[in-house]
Amino acid sequence: MLKRIFSFILIICLIFTPILTVSAYEPSGVEITANAAMLVSLDTDEVLYEKNADQQVYPASITKIMTTLLILESDKYSPDAKIAMTEEALDLISGTGSSVSLLKVGEEISQLDLVYMVLMSSYGDCALLAATYYGGSVENFVAMMNTRAAELGLTGTHYENPIGLHHEENYTTARDTYILTKYALQNETFKEVCESTRHTVKTSLSGERVLSTTNFLQDNTTNYYYTYAKGVKTGYTDEAGRCLVSTASYNGYNYMCLVFGCPPNGKNHFTESKELYRWAFNNFEFKKVADTENPVAEIGVELSLDTDFVSLYVEESFVSVLPKDADDSTISIVPHPTKETVDAPIKKGQVLGTADIIYAEQVIGTVNLISNENIEKSAMLAVLRAIKQFFTSSYMKVFYALIAVVILIFIIMVIKLNSKKSKKRKIKYVPYDETKRR
Predict the structure, then answer these.
(1) How large is the average pLDDT for residues 78-93?
(2) Judging by beta carbons within 10 Å of its beta carbon (0-12, 13-18, 19+), is residue 52 exposed, middle or buried?
(3) Is 248 exposed, middle or buried (0-12, 13-18, 19+ CB in 10 A)?
(4) Is 356 helix (H, G, I), strand (E, B) or coil?
(5) CB 23: neighbour CB atoms within 10 A?
(6) Domain count, the chain
(7) pLDDT tens digits, residue range 117-132?
(8) Which letter does DSSP use for residue 436 in this model?
(9) Spatial CB neighbours of 49, under 8 Å, sequence gap ≥ 6
(10) What are the residues whose beta carbons fall under 8 Å from the beta carbon of 311, sequence distance 6 or more?
(11) What pLDDT score was predicted for residue 435?
């Protein structure tokens, strides 16, 4: 139960943590033949490079990242418990061309060793064994994969099998794979397995055997070894081309590189990933582009006798991975207060707006703006406003209009009444006839 709660919290955090797309950079001296690619800072979630990141691609064995995740999240998973190869799994893998473990029917391994065989060595028969054991059937396990993809917000991803065998409806995107892999790496077992180069397995029917990683970047016995690289997963089919999801860390900087659709007849997925890492390590650095000590805006304050405005500060310092030669004049902070004025009381730390961090005319992040002080409310000003609002309310305006109408009617009636009285007082003039007196 606790595992499911923790998993749910991680999913929510990932969904509401946006990937910041900078993508204002073109890697100099690096030719990217991959159909889709991304280089993302694991420290800040900023995308330093992307190519067709939202285009649907065939993932090949990159699919097994999701397969492994579901194994580790299953209530049935117990690392030391045994699991035996089944005839069903071997029948299902037969003729597919997938790499296989050569385990025999009934041969037992630990469930942790199964994880190594699926993720590190990429054995298809072991992926099918996992699907039937943890899902009840391959079909049900695939449904579980698609449900988890939806929960993680992987809108460009759909699975048709747990191996990565080619199918028109087995697809993903580089951006979706970044979200999935970042989430999976928070599982310590997943992280340990995918970063391993060798692992020794002891089965119930044979002696010890040593498994090797398929990622040549982390294998120092290959010509493609890169000392800073770790995990995560390789993939290949004729239709998908060469694919690789990997991470690399150096001097406090951590990146994930994803390449899909490299030429099938070469090792470009290794060389291009290595070159992208070198480009990032050599040309980018952390820059604090917004701190919590200097105000970035101010807005008016009402109902306070202490001040007429409040200064807005960045809630947390914002650090970005930017080119080492980035001109500070091209970095700006554009505030967006929630209101032009705000009423007291105001609490220290109260969010009063947001600000966009802009570099080279692109938004590289958004931060909250807060007050750094408490501002008290004046009871007197609140009463005066209430009185003013009462006398200027729409109800009072109607009342004033009615009074005006009544007064106007009264004036009209008075005028009419006076007019009638005036007529009654008038005396008819009769001319004087002097002849009548004689």
Answers:
(1) 97
(2) middle
(3) buried
(4) strand
(5) 16
(6) 2
(7) 999 999 999 999 999 9
(8) G
(9) 23, 25, 26, 27, 37, 38, 39, 276, 279
(10) 295, 297, 298, 371, 372, 373
(11) 60
Instruction: List the domain range (segments joined by +) for residue 319.
Output: 291-375
- Go through 77-86 and write b for each residue having 16 or more CB atoms within 10 A of its CB, e for each that does not: beeeeebbbb
In this structure, the answer to whether residues 309 and 276 fall within a common structural domain is no
Comparing CA positions, the residue from 122, 141, 145 lying closest to residue 237 is 122
Task: Count the residues in the chain.
Answer: 438
DSSP class of residue 203 equals -
Last residue of a domain, one of 283, 303, 318: 283
User: Do the beta carbons of residue 213 and residue 226 sit within 8 Å?
Assistant: no
Residue 265 carries which DSSP code? T
- Domain's final residue, options 375, 393, 426: 375
2 three-state secondary structure: helix
Question: How far is Cα of residue 130 from the mean position of the Cα atoms in its chain?
Answer: 30
Handedness of CA 312, 313, 314, 320 (dihedral sign): positive
**For the domain that residue 61 is a member of, what is the CATH number?**
3.40.710.10
d(CA 358, CA 360): 7
Same domain, 214 and 315: no
Q: DSSP string spanning 64-111?
A: HHHHHHHHHH-TT--TTSEEE--HHHHHHHTTS------PPTT-EEEH
Residues 176 and 264 in one domain: yes
Question: 125 and 161 share a domain?
Answer: yes
Q: Which helix (H) or strand (E) holds 145?
A: helix 138-151
CA angle 49, 170, 54 (to 5 degrees): 25
Asked whether the predicted pLDDT for residue 215 surpasses 80, the reply is yes
